[in-house]
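User: Um, what's this?
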Amino acid sequence: MGQHTGILGGTFDPIHLGHLRIAVEALEQLELDRVLFIPCKIPVHKSKAHASPEARCHMVELAIQHEPQFQLDMREIESKLPSYTIYTLRALKQEFPDDFFYLILGSDSLTQFEQWYLPKKILSLSKIIVFKRTNCDTIAHICENLKLFKGKIVKDKDQFKKLNAGFVFPMQNPIIEISSSMIRQKIKMAKNIRYLVPEQVWNVIHNQHYF
């Protein structure tokens, strides 16, 4: 029997407590078996990352080391291809053919989903867990206004897990106002970033000068 696998991708430039809290909420609310943290090498929807791929992976590794159900997956870092979600899902499906995959996305990313590369193909391989972001419409309203998601929102966890790929679960989550760009700005201004990132990540940023 395959595992229920959450996928949390991003630049993680750097990883922060907001990322970790969202992963915990997804893991617990959907009773997932694991969450894969997948740093991208070549961001498609954002500007180039500031820290090196090696540094970003190191920070993720440090951040999740005490959570046995969190795993670092370096396939996008090691790939020569752009970090398109469909490429990652196809590779994961080939490696773990019996797993059930759940993309973990913010509501802001959901609004842009139809502009992603091969969005229909993505939805043929994965369900989507959406967490609320500040200054975004409700998840239900976003889904009803996007052709791909109209009628696809499912609020019951058990029903959602039984359904095939392509459906959306609106997660209940605390909204944590932390962003990687805000952390980098604080570093630039010589401000203290403690308690915005895990202690181990704070130490390595402070000692290795990743930013």
About this structure: The CA atoms of residues 126 and 165 lie 5 Å apart. The beta strands are 4-10, 34-39, 70-72, 100-106, 127-131, 168-170.
